UniProtKB/TrEMBL annotation:
Keyword set includes Transmembrane: yes
Protein name as catalogued: FtsX-like permease family protein
Domain of life: Bacteria
Principal place of residence: membrane
Keyword annotations: Cell membrane, Membrane, Transmembrane, Transmembrane helix
Any single Gene Ontology cellular-component annotation: plasma membrane
Localization in the cell: Cell membrane
Lineage: Bacteria, Pseudomonadati, Bacteroidota, Cytophagia, Cytophagales
Span of domain MacB-like periplasmic core: 20-244
TM segment ranges: 21-43, 288-310, 335-362, 382-406, 427-451, 680-702, 729-748, 760-779
InterPro entries linked: ABC3_permease_C, MacB_PCD, Macrolide_Exporter_MacB
Residues annotated as domain ABC3 transporter permease C-terminal: 294-407, 680-789
GO molecular-function terms, A-Z: transmembrane transporter activity
Membrane topology: Multi-pass membrane protein
């Protein structure tokens, strides 16, 4: 029986090729989008779920309730002290320190010819307990016992192939930052993409333990602690235990602080933007994942709406077929099954095409979103189940209404070709469907325009200093005594205008903060401050504006301080002049001195974050960035000179530079990707909507063929007939615009809440979206309307 249904359905689709192509194309687009978004959501929700103890792994994070400041950092001596006190009841404790932008040298006696590499990816310094907490594959051997000793390393397969091509890397020696000779003890598979620990090499923590601070006054976000909570132990109990323990130490060394430790679940790290990610920095809010799911459903819904519109448009042509079938004894239920089989056949064809489209589009999506999603339909049972469920639901949703409308035709009326609009279920449903489609289109267009406007705001907003034509080069960690000769050598070329050294650029992802003492107070201040170590030329190179005082001198051996205006206000000083001469001491008071200048506020991080209090002072041993202001008319000569001098001063290090404005642009990569996705989804939604509108105009043309013929005989022009077809849909597009404006306004306001500095919403993007949608709709309608208007009236009236 079903064989006959499907055979009949197949013949019907072949007879109506244009109808079939439009339906399959629309559904294929919608299904492709839903599959791609499903893959992205599935991937995002899988982060670090492969660890066997994932439900019991927590990260210790710090919050300062009074300042509304959060950090994933933990105090350096925390783990050692907790372990000496029986782990405080935790099953396992481990600390991890991350590092990026490091130099790796391969000694010549290892490979015959010395090589040097710059590693821009994450490197992890881990304790042996790291492998008890996490289930990363470290290769053929258990490396826990070896990681109890210093100077051992595990390389990923990709790095091993890069450093020692065609050789066994185990037993080889690599030199880390020209400081540590590390022995390769194992080669592990590359880390999976869906982890917040994307390390390309693991180094024993003992290698650097003695170089780390041992006081309780320092926090660094690249140093994090993870614990395994025993089963049936409440999180609140464990948090109380940690805080009581930490309080005793912190108050003894840094009294007056109100910091609090929290236990953040491992499965929350990837989605909690308050504390940022672990080391991958790929945090994504769950609200955005929900938004992607909604977008996928909405695009699929618009495709289903198209199917309904096109099916009802086709109904007039199939009225006689239905009449003949009913006269021959076919029941309504048989007709419903017949039309549902046709729908199923179309959905299956569309799904088959969408699988091909997904295979083709996935590499581009991975590149765009910087993901590692794989598509394996047969091995991914969840994806297969999703496709089967989607096929059934789309078939029922898209096919049920047209099937009941078509099967409801009365044989006599159908055979006399006297079908009316009312016979097809009334106009109201189709009007609702059109309004829904174009509301969705306009919401996406408005959001795209506003996201694009916010991105332009990011690119063009003044940051409080001059970032143009600045090249940054990361320095080796033993550069202190080479700074002055290096500066003089660089300035010998007129293409290099200014040179400065600092711990980091004005706007940087490397934020350092800690406690401080103000004006010889016995206790440190009740809030943390950001700190930068910069030379005096830093202020002139970046053209920072002094509100009071000036930069400290280069040659003076006495420490002086420069603060930003936010720091001045936090200290309760009424004017910038009031700050001059006041005394500041950082952390353990090694760096202390009088305030000699107050600079205007500048953005130290992305515009999502507020400007924080900041102290700047000298410390050549902490300088890790060389900043050079270059003459952009001599850009090539400047870069060549920089490289030449670098190779002379640091022959063992790779020369690598980056323009500061490019570094700042990287802060907004996620937003830029969202912007691109919005544009793609908007185009797809508009295209699907146009297919549906085309179908509705075709329906009207079929319904009003004789009316058009009579109007033409009575002298109606092509333009007036085109207007006749268009005016109803113009009204619907305008109604959709009225509905889209508040929805888009609400959604974009939620998105903008993530940014401390953001655009002000104006009416312009809303009006532009409405005009664009209206023009697109008119162009879509005009083709079918003009075609109907140019039809020969004799053909449409001869049957009368």
């Amino acid at each position: 029986m079903f064989k006959i249904y499907f055979l009949t359905a197949f013949r019907s689709l072949l007879r109506n090729k244009s109808y079939s192509i439009l339906n399959i194309a629309g559904l294929a687009l919608g299904i492709t989008c839903s599959i791609l978004l499903f893959l992205v959501i599935q991937y995002q929700l899988s982060y670090d779920s492969f660890h066997t103890k994932a439900d019991r792994i927590y990260r210790l994070v710090v919050t300062f309730p009074e300042n509304d400041f959060n950090t994933p950092a933990s105090h350096f001596p925390l783990t050692a002290n907790m372990q000496s006190n029986g782990n405080l009841g935790f099953e396992t404790i481990t600390q991890v320190k991350g590092d990026v932008g490091v130099q790796i040298n391969i000694p010549s006696n290892t490979v015959g010819t010395g090589k040097k590499f710059l590693v821009d990816d994450n490197i992890g310094f881990v304790e042996p307990s790291f492998f008890d907490v996490f289930d990363f594959n470290t290769g053929p051997i258990d490396v826990r016992s070896q990681f109890a000793a210093p100077n051992v390393v595990v390389l990923t397969q990709s790095l091993a192939d890069k450093y020692f091509p065609g050789q066994n890397a185990v037993g080889k020696i690599i030199k880390y930052n020209n400081q540590y000779n590390l022995k390769v003890v194992s080669v592990m598979p590359d880390m999976p993409g869906n982890t917040e620990f994307p390390f390309v090499m693991l180094v024993s923590y003992e290698t650097i333990r003695k170089t780390l601070p041992i006081d309780w006054g320092n926090l660094s976000s690249d140093h994090q602690t993870f614990v395994v909570l025993p089963e049936n132990v409440p999180v609140t109990t464990a948090e109380a235990s940690v805080n009581q323990f930490v309080k005793e130490h912190v108050e003894r060394e840094s009294p007056g602080h109100t910091l609090k430790y929290l236990l953040q679940p491992l499965k929350d790290i990837h989605y909690n933007t308050s504390f940022f990610g672990a080391f991958a920095q790929t945090t994504i809010a769950k609200e955005l994942i929900i938004a992607m799911a909604i977008v996928g459903i909405v695009l699929l819904l618009t495709a289903c709406i198209n199917f309904i519109n096109l099916a009802t448009a086709q109904a007039i042509r199939r009225a006689k077929e239905v009449g003949v079938r009913k006269v021959m004894g076919c029941s309504r239920s048989q007709l419903v099954i017949q039309f549902l089989c046709e729908t199923l056949l179309i959905v299956l064809c569309a799904t088959f095409l969408s699988v091909i489209f997904t295979e083709l589009a996935l590499p581009y999506l991975n590149t765009l979103l910087d993901l590692q999603i794989t598509f394996s339909l047969l091995s991914d049972k969840i994806l297969l189940l999703f496709l089967v469920a989607q096929t059934i639901l789309v078939t029922l949703f898209a096919g049920f209404y047209p099937a009941f409308v078509l099967s409801d035709f009365q044989p006599i009326t159908a055979l006399r070709s006297r079908m009316s609009v009312q016979r097809l279920g009334g106009v109201s449903l189709r009007q609702v469907l059109v309004v829904m489609q174009f509301t969705i289109c306009q919401v996406l267009i408005i959001c795209t325009l506003l996201v694009n406007e916010q991105m332009n705001f990011f690119r063009n907003k003044a940051l409080g200093y001059d970032k143009e034509a600045v090249v940054n080069i990361y320095l080796p960690r033993d550069s202190g005594r080479k700074i002055q000769p290096l500066r003089q050598e660089l300035l010998n070329n007129p293409a290099i205008r200014e040179v400065s050294f600092a711990s980091d650029a004005p706007t940087s992802g490397n934020i350092s903060y800690g406690n401080f003492y103000f004006n010889h107070a016995a206790e440190d201040a009740d809030f943390q401050t950001h700190k930068k170590f910069v030379d005096p030329l830093y202020f002139s190179l970046y053209d920072m504006k002094f509100l009071a005082g000036k930069a400290y001198p280069e040659s003076d051996s006495i420490h002086h301080m420069v603060i930003n205006d936010t720091m001045r206000r936090k200290l309760g000083l009424k004017t910038p002049e009031d700050a001059i001469g006041k005394y500041l001491a950082l952390g353990d008071k090694q760096y202390a001195g009088a305030i000699v200048g107050v600079v205007s506020d500048f953005h130290q991080a992305s515009l999502a974050s507020p400007i924080e209090p900041l102290i700047m002072t000298k410390n050549p041993d902490a300088y890790s960035v060389l900043s050079a202001k270059i003459d952009m008319t001599q850009q090539k000569e400047a870069l060549q000179h920089l490289e030449k001098v670098w190779e002379t001063v640091y022959p063992d290090y790779v020369f690598n530079y980056e323009y500061l404005d490019n570094t700042i642009a990287e802060f907004y990569q996620d937003e830029a990707r969202q912007n691109t996705l919005f544009k793609i989804f908007s185009l797809i939604a508009i295209f699907i909507g146009c297919i549906g509108l085309y179908g509705l105009v075709a329906f009207m043309a079929a319904q009003r063929t004789k009316e058009v013929g009579i109007r033409k005989v009575l002298g109606a022009s092509t333009f007036s007939i085109t207007v006749l077809f268009s005016k109803e849909f113009v009204k619907l597009v305008l109604v959709a615009f009225v509905l889209a404006v508040p929805i888009a306004y609400y959604l974009i306001n939620i998105w903008l809440q993530d940014f401390t500095y953001r655009i002000s919403l104006t009416y312009t993007p809303f009006i532009l979206a409405g005009i664009a949608t209206l023009l697109i709709a008119l162009l879509t309608m005009s083709f079918q309307a003009v075609k109907a208007a140019l039809a020969n009236p004799v053909v449409s009236l001869k049957s009368e």
